[in-house]
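Lab notebook, bench 4. We co-purified these components, and the gel suggests they stay together. Before we commit to crystallization screens, I want a quick structural picture of the whole thing.
Request: model the full complex, all chains together.
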Amino acid sequence: MVEERKISSAVVNRLPRYYRYLGELLESGTDRISSKELSEKMNITASQIRQDLNNFGGFGQQGYGYNVEYLYNEIKKILGIDKPYNIIVVGGGNIGQALVNYTNFEKRGFIIKAVFDINPRLIGMTIRGVEVRDVDKMEEFIKNNNIDVAILTLPKAQAVETANNLAEWGIKGIWNFSPVDLDVPKGVSVENVHLTDSLMTLIYKINDISTK
Amino acid sequence: MVEERKISSAVVNRLPRYYRYLGELLESGTDRISSKELSEKMNITASQIRQDLNNFGGFGQQGYGYNVEYLYNEIKKILGIDKPYNIIVVGGGNIGQALVNYTNFEKRGFIIKAVFDINPRLIGMTIRGVEVRDVDKMEEFIKNNNIDVAILTLPKAQAVETANNLAEWGIKGIWNFSPVDLDVPKGVSVENVHLTDSLMTLIYKINDISTK
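Here is the predicted assembly.
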C-alpha cells in the first residue's frame, strides 16, 4: 500500500536495488529472508532496510522475516512497473541503437515503440523490428500511441528544445542521456544518465585511492 | 591545491557537473562568474557552490567572482582528468560497442585501447579502429598496455568473476554497466551505471507525480 506522504529520493533510488535482489532470491527459490540476511547480501544495515520498507507500510513480521515473493511484487507495484510503458527513443545514434537492442527492457514491460532521428540515412531502417522515423512525425506519433517515456540521446545543442517539445506533447518522463541538464515543466520527470560525468567520478575515485 | 582530507561523495559527484558548466562558459567566452550567477545557471545555491569549492581550498575572491578558465583547469586537476587514461571494454555487445563509438570520451583523454569478448564472431573485428580481442588475452594485454580502467558490460553471470580478475590484474577502476553490485578488493574503485535501475526510478517518479 503506497502512502501519500513524500518518500525521500534516497529511498526511491534504493527501491530498484531491492527489486533486483528480491528478483534474484526469487529465481534461486528463496521463500523467506530476514532483514539481517538481506542486509548482508545488499551491504546495507538491517535497520536501514526496515526503515526503508516502513516507508511503504512495512512488510515483515518480527522474527519471521519477509516473504520474498510478496515483497518483490509489492515493490514492483510501488515502483509502478506492474504495468507496461510505451517508450520512444529520440536520437538514433550509438547509444539510442544500443538501448533499442537491449532486450532486458522489454522483459520488464518497457516497450520501445519507435526511434526518431533527423538523419535521412537512418529514417526507414528498423532496429530489432523498431522503425526509425522522421523527427517531424514525432508529435503525432506521441499523441496517437500513448507514449509515456522518451529516451533522449541527442547532442547537447538539440536536447533542451526537444525536451520542451516532448513535455508539451504529453511525455511524462524523460530518460536523459544528453550531456545537459534539462529544465522541463512541472509534471514531467527527468532521470539523467550523464555518462561522461560518471566516468569522471570514477577517475576521481581512482586517484583518491592511489594517493592514500 | 588538493587537500588530504576526505571529500564527501556528494561533493565528488557534483564536480563533473561544475566541470561541464565551466566548460560551457569557457566555450561561450565568459571570463569571470560570480557564485550567484553560477548558482542560477546550475540551479544550486550560491552558498553550496562556495562550500563545495572551499573543500579544495576555494578559488573565488569576495565580490570579484571566479576566473572561469582557472577554475575549470583546477577542477580538471582535482578530477585527475588532466592526463589521459587507457581503457578497455570488457564485453563487445550493444552497450560496449556504443561506448567505443562515443567519440566524446576520446576528446577528454579516455583512450579505449581494446574490446574483449568470448564470441569468435566478434573477435578480430574492429570498432572505430579498436580491435575486438579474445578474452583469454586480457590479462596479458592489461599488464603490457598500462590499462587503468575497465568498462564492464558483461551479463550478470560473468561480471562478478571477471571483476575480481580485473582487480587482480592491476585494473584501478571498473566502470560497471553489468546489472550486479561488485565486491572488489580495496584499492579498486567501482562506479555503477545500472541502466534498468535508473529507468525504474524514472517510472516511480512519473507515477509519484501523476498521483499528486
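The CA atoms of residues 173 and 189 of chain A lie 5 Å apart. Worth comparing against the SEC data before the next meeting. The mean pLDDT of chain A is 91.
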